[in-house]
Design brief:
Length: about 200
Amino acid sequence: MTAPRGRPRSEDARRAILRAALELCARDGYQDLTIKSIADTAGVGRQTVYRWWPDKASVLLEALIDVGNEHRAELAPPASADVLGAVELLLRTTFELARKVTGQALVGLMADAQRDPELSKRLQDTVIGPRRAVLRALLQDGVDAGDLTATVPLDLVVDFAFGAMWYRMLSHHAPVDAALAREVTTAIGAMLNTAMPNS
């Protein structure tokens, strides 16, 4: 999160700005998102936004962190006897948020991060890395409990799971949704020598 600059932030204004940034980005795309449009939609002055964030990327990063915090229970499920059920919940929540709320912001930030190492590190540290770590920990718990077998490197399985989401968000050839979460979870079960229960 960007350190506040100037006066202490109004929490209502902060939330309005973050909500406006995500909604406008989802509607208009990352490239057309401006600080002016964010400020106008949030009902604040541009100087208010710039007082707290240096650019739109920083606004969106904080917005994504807030979304993660709001859905913490689904995005960080505890160890469970039903390992693949916990995996599917994590993926389903992640994919649904990407489809409805965060996708355009994620794609835009990732594109900018290719040319900005500092932004890339912030994105990895605050949004992408923590989600990967949760999935890997769930898989490791399953291996440790004997429910899964690490027949392939777990980091590669994590790449596969989130890679499917990124590929579909970039190519738009198929939806990123609950059905994809189910299919990816089933594939993970096959890769790690187990089977999904019938549903």
